[in-house]
Amino acid sequence: MTALNELIERLYNENIGQADQPKPSAEVPSSSDNSEEEAETRRMLHVLNEMGALLNEDDQPKIEDSPSEEALLRVLNHWEAMTHSVQGIKEHMQSLELDIAKMQPWGDFDVMKVEQLANHGCYVRFWKMNGELLSQKVEEPWFIECNVLVVSQDIETSYFVTVTDDEDTPSVPAEAEEVIICPCPVSTLIMLQTRDKDSLKKMETLLGDYALVHYGEVYSALRKKLPKNAELPQLVHQRESLRDKLRNFFKRESKG
């Protein structure tokens, strides 16, 4: 403890101490039990809403008696594990989407060979730069010294590589931005993306089937836990379909 910290602590204890801190009263019951109950209720309601969102208007989930706490816990845990897996797949797909967009201008090439070349003293670096500006620099010494190869270009940007035998950054113009490539070629990234799409479809199908089977159990457990006068979520089969909404709307319009 530093001298300053020690001084502050001593002054605080002498002048303030525990005087201003509220003392727990034996007459005031702990709210931890209530907090746990509220957290469990919120959890069940969240799962129920997620299940209901995956069910179709024509689905008729069976409303059964409330399951045991152990059975309900298994349902909630399994559901959350599956939704967590789905979220992980979606996040991985988003990451792959960014990587594909990043690697697309370079085409499909063997990324591992770039690393192997570097181990043998041949350094390939990837850059992007305003295309018009790059075209004005093709006659400059650096363009030849760095063995520049323009790989592709779009409306505004040119993508090029430099090939040198020096590990240090080559003397490219300050306007050039180095691109750190992904460890996988475009073809591999697209393959992984396709695999993720298939996995996502399978998981969403499993979630829908699981929701249809266990929706009623979670609903019954939630109904049992909430007070009698509490408002319960609307059952899936009680929701009005879009077709029914339109039919009723036109009925009202024709009467008016």
Description:
The chain has 2 domains: 41-106 and 185-227; 109-182. 14% of the residues are buried. Helix 2 packs across helix 7 and helix 3 (69-103) packs antiparallel against helix 7. It is elongated and about 85 Å long. With 256 residues, it is of the alpha+beta class. Helices cover 56% and strands 9% of the residues. It contains 8 helices and 4 strands; from the N terminus they run H-H-H-H-E-H-H-E-E-E-H-H. It has helices at residues 3-15, 32-54, 69-103, 111-119, 131-135, 141-145, 186-225, 242-255, and strands at 123-130, 149-153, 157-164, 177-179. The termini are far apart. Strands 2-3-1-4 form a 4-stranded antiparallel beta sheet.
How would you characterize the largest beta sheet? Answer: 4 strands, antiparallel
* Mean pLDDT over the full residue set: 81
Q: Domains counted in the coordinates: how many? A: 2
Sequence stretches where pLDDT stays below 50 over 5 or more residues: 18-30
Structural class call reads alpha+beta
Work out the strand percent: 5-15%
Strand arrangement within the widest β-sheet reads 2-3-1-4
Secondary-structure element string: HHHHEHHEEEHH
Rounded Rg: 32 Å
Continuous helix count: 8
Distance between the termini: 82 Å
Assembly of the depicted chains? single chain
Helix content: 55-70%
Tally of strands: 4
Shape: elongated
